[in-house]
Queue: 2 jobs
Job 1
Amino acid sequence: MPRLPALLIATALLTAALPARSDDWLEFRGPGGASRVKEGSLPVELSAADVRWSADLPGRGLSGVLVVGDRAFVTTSDGPTQDRLHLVCLSTSTGKILWDRQVWATGRTMCHSKTSVAAPTPCSDGKRVYAIFSSNDLVCFDLDGNLQWLRGITYDYPNVSNSLGMASSLLVTADTVIVPVENDSESYSLGIDAATGVNRWRLDRPKGANWTSPVILAPGLVALQSKTGIEAIRATDGSTAWSYTDGADTVSSSALADGILYVPSNGITALTLDPADPAKQPTQAWRENTLSPATASCVVAGDALYTINGAGVLTAGDRATGKRRWQLRIEGPYSGTPVTDGKHLWAVNEAGLVRVVELGEKEGKVVATLDLGDEILCSPAAADGALYVRSNTKLHKIGR
Amino acid sequence: MVSHHRFLGAVALLLSLPSGGVAVASPITDALPVIRAVDHEGKGNAAAAKAWSVIAAADASALPDILAGMDGANPIAANWLRSAIDAVVTKAGGNARLPVDSLVRFLAETKHDPRARRLAFDLVRGADAARADKLLDGMVEDPSVELRRDAVAKVIARADALKTGEKKEEALVAYQKAFSASRNVEQIQALATTIRELGGTVDLTGHFGFLRGWQIVGPFDNTDGKGFATVYPPEETLDLSAALDGKEGKVSWQPVETADEYGVVNVNLSYPPPAPPADAKPADSDSKEGLKGVIAYAVTEFVSAEDRPAEIRLGTKNAWKIWLNGSPVFEREEYHRGMEIDQYRMPVTLRKGPNTILIKVCQDEQRRPWTTEWEFQLRVCDEVGTAIHPLGGPDSVAK
């Protein structure tokens, strides 16, 4: 083996990804889908100077951003038929693109003009990044951009598609990637071996368009949401642990916080998991039909939960009872789910206005606004003291 | 902490860098077949991951060979190679250090996979934009749809300049040339508008190859969506003279010829709902005219000049099934999620002489403003999108 200059070796080591940290943002809406961050971890006062960088993206999309260590990951699509699918890795400190890997769509790319082929948010286990697109092309790269495996779910099962576009995001737990590809025709959720990309299981799911995303209830236990309700699935074999059958929304997703699953069902229905065994049938804590999330999912922090309805009204509900506490009009519409630390809430509307809402016991108050001047349809990610939001052209880092 | 595996990868990367001064052979010959062996449901993934590392570590001079590895590969294998090329280019230090001459030679050979050639073009463009732009001049009839699209865009740009310069007749000739060459739907539609504004004529139906003439029968029952799976008589025997048991009584085949230039066959026009009684209350504001919970079949005869591969391309927002010469081609049970030209592409083999194309078009029971349509548009073309016309011309079908 030839001797390598020490400087080159050092450079190579530095360009390798750093390992994941505890406050990484590894999935759609963060841990449990609760969109919750550590109290005081995000800036409350916002100005244009807080936009640390805005990076040009190679294509469009509305998927959320992942943050793993010092790297941010985002998907895009481009080309005349949006069939060039990108997974892009950027430096969180500079916004520089570190690598960009492309594949071609093997499934259909047709979708509604408001959404995108790059709609589902990827996920990571801190070692690899898993990304799926509306065409149901599924890829797995390590953090340095080395392909581990890929699949074409519509190539495998030709009627898995939605002419309006697919949008359900991925999860990974128990070394299994949870891949919901539910639609009107050939409707499945799959559990795929995270290391090899082969099926562990494939479940027939209710036929019907479904844009909701799953939630990890406990390591190896996942909640799948559909129009029929919630199915708790064991990730390793796809077996059903329990079912909730009172129906659920097919757009906004459930959120888990402190052992309670908040399901967009008849308003919001709170299901308390058995703390000793979350695989046991949960009990219904309350149901409140005045809490009505629209596209954005509910968020949970402190002793309250928050929803934004189709009119752009933010509603605070009591976590113990579901009863409405207060409402505040924050001009919408909102496609993305806000994040909260329990004291404040950061919401980004489709016009690109970032609002910071102070969350009181009796009222909410907008305390800061930042205009990104960019259409934002994604749910923000939050990590290391910053918000990450992307548009069809840019990824913005706001905060530290 | 950096893993051992990652460290070795970084060393391999450095060894192959020009600045490292050490040349590394590209043993991709053994790796390519491993990648090409991947298939459905992750078959071959584990071996392919190792082969991918070998290919990704190759020198940029191997790019034409990697691109050629896509020839005849299934789309999953092509994607493994596609992402490896990104890694090779990154490692090479960007497009400026790529073997442009050999990429141009690869691009010139139209036998290669169209998407691989498009990728080669993009690599050349990244290194030498002017050279790539010049190459487009010879690509207006290229088998790569995207290369052809960009070549046609150059023709359009020249036509636009002529139009701006008040040379309208020359501009019209150029636009007509662009229209004739284009296989991109948006480009074709924009060109048709421009040509008509300049007083020219276009035949959109013929250009796309939409089939206008059909025989149609219905309605059959699709209450609760059960008709999608129900085998009605047209799926068993095609007797265009037979009276069949429909949803509300006997039904018979009738000829239909759509006047829509995009070939849209509006089934609602063949089976309008009965007129409401005089004392009926005003309809629900959400409801629209049209039968609900029904099914129709449409059939046409397509006379092919030869045995040949082709594509049937369909657009519809209704659930549907298609048969070619009595054999099922594809089916999809989805209602009212959208419709566009070439929404579904189905590779088929036409046989010389008459070919029967049968489509089942299902309407559900939703009553919303966006659930009224009961329609389809269908064309026959090659894989590039060039229309294949039946013998006797586009209107010679539906006997």
Job 2
Amino acid sequence: MSSLLAAVASNGEPLWRTIQQPLALKLAVAAGGLALIAAQLWWFLGRHGHAAVASEGERGLQEITITVDGGYSPARIRLKAGQPVRLTFHRLDPSSCVAQVIVPDFRRSLDLPLNGRTSLELPAMQPGEYPFHCGMAMVRGVLEVV
Amino acid sequence: MTAPPPAAPCCHADGLASAPYDAERELARELTQLRRKVSVAVVLTALVMLSSLPFLPSWFTSPWTQLILTTPVLFWCGRGFFSGAASAFRQHSADMNTLVAAGTGIAWLTSLFSTVFPQLLIAEGLPADVYYEVAAVILTMVLLGNLLEARARGQTSEAIRRLLQLQPPTARVLRNGKPVQIPVSQLVVGDLVQVRPGEKLPTDGVVSEGSSWVEESMLTGEPTPVAKAAGDAVIGASMNRSGSFSFRVSRVGADTVLAQIVELVRQAQSSRTRVQRVADQVVSWFAPAVIALAIAAFVIWFLLSGNPVLSMLFLVSVLVIACPCALGLATPTSIMVASGKGAENGLIFRSAEALETAGTLRTIVLDKTGTLTRGQPEVTQFERLPGGALPADSLLALTAALESRSEHPLAEAIVAYANSQLEPGDLPAVTDFEAVAGLGVQGVIDGQQVLVGTPRWFPELGIDTAALQPLVERLEGLACSVAAVVVDGRLEACFGVADPLKPSSAAAVAALRRLGLQVVMLSGDARRTAEVVAAEVGIERVIAEVRPADKASVVARLQEQGEGPVAMVGDGINDAPALAQADVGLAMGTGTDVAIAASDITLISGNLAGVPAAIELSRHTMANIRQNLFFAFAYNVAGIPIAAGVLFPLTGWLLSPMLAGAAMAFSSVSVVSNALRLRRFRPTPLPVAAS
């Protein structure tokens, strides 16, 4: 660690140099930066597209396949209240973070083998939002029950 | 908060047994790959760092050599970060991969630019420096952190792995009268299994022949071996000590005690604490917020200094110092380790919330019968009364006939006593039988009206109990419950029934008081009887003469009086409403029933010593979680501004992006390592009871 610090200290001096930049460039950088901030916030935090609707099978069982690759696709799933659900996860992402999916409201967890399809059945639900996420809660999805 | 919907039924038997092994194999594969990548990255990164030394040949220090060395570090060793970031981006999500890929990618791209077009920078009056070592060191550090974290994470689920390994792979069963060795998965209910000394039991069953001592500590936490003879229930994965016996299989696969324990622990590990729900919210907007801050740092430093290289270094530092992983890992890892640790000690936590609340309890209500006492009452006194007219044996026969219709534990004791005194024979027939809850039973036998019940009952029926009073006082002083017999309105006799204390009760109560809890005893017995028992175990506060149906409202009243959070400890069947009403319901198991529905915590062994142990474990766990959350939050809250250069104008101190990367890599390692400290938890041992 200390060698790293030393390396920085010796490099530090020439780095700290003020360079006169034209005002127009400064304004452009500021505007570009703000635009970039707004764009990434919109991209990552905004709501995109509609919730996917699960298909309905025998005896009212709602079914949907969720692809796990960097995230859940679809990540927003609309379900009908009062009918059981089967979620099938198809994991393509080798990252161990997504090897487990958790539905905390139902105390259910599921290990997802790589390149495999694994199903999870949930009982009929009351209307509301039920999140599901990976073991560390970084990758998230939500069941929208209406 | 709304109550969670009931947990769905257990998954399939095969899924239960195979899933953890798959996860384990995958973790092993991941570890091998990570190790290979880390070794390559370390070698290449060391070469990149060497190339900044002055005395080496110029071809070695050339930016082009560094480009050649760094590129595979990023795009082979660190391929996963970039592909992960790309697919997350397509899904509108940003995570750890996004931050690492953006940070190292920007450092690499800037360096590539000054390698290819150095004259453009020199024309601007800037040194044409390259920062390949920044990209390479950050990536190597993060990979190394991932490796350490994956190794540690493997250890958090060690408890479940150990539980699953308890089950022997094969069983010796009688098929067509001959013993054959078969895989455990082929066992069916009803099979007759032979067990020799020193062998593990393959599944649950009931002893049919022979006897032995069996060690159940791995499942119940109880250290002493248990005697087993014909008719006794045995549980799979327990260890047979000395004798040989055979048992009839009663449960296989997912129904066994072991499988239920594993499933319950997995359920608890999948649930979230209240505090984690907050952290989860933070994590979901964390990465986009950090990206915004990083861009803002770049813009501000560019406006202040006009120096794009300096601004870029701040941008990279902010991106790579932030660690959402540490926040996401803070609680689940502690819960994983703690619930496994609980299972090792025979304490099954049903949810993370139970683990969270148990440590905050202020009042603990102990049901007397079956919790403090053995729950198997015996008649210790049988007293005739002066006004009685019937001979002893016909009186006993009448009482036994009536009481054999009742399911009350006292009735069972009286029937057992009568049977031991009487010649074997048929009991007289009872008509017009009626049980009055909490008071007694009545019926007509041979034309006589017979009542058996608590002396409290009789005055309201117009029967004078004055003659009974001194006797009742004496018996209650001996911690006996009193049942009197009235035939045709005439007091005939009374029984003193005592329920012996469990040997560990007094020590467990003392331990609970040491933990600062107010201990309350709840009993359906007469006040005096209850007080004698309470005094024996050291409880001062007694709520006596409570009918079974009123136990839940007693708990509710304590909660209303602000004595909460309140825990109720009971047997899980009769006490189910009270267990559900309490903030934490603890059910005393019997070793064979694990999934007691109303309880938040099940003590498999039925030993009261598990209650203080559960509370201690909860307190340790919550302290551990608070430390983790503090580390994770404080680290990010302090680290990000420093990386953004807040201190730079004051101290001239610039945090190297490499150090930022190292700090990030090790913050999640430190969280997981801290959680693993819980593996060393041992409940404070209770002093051995004198009896």
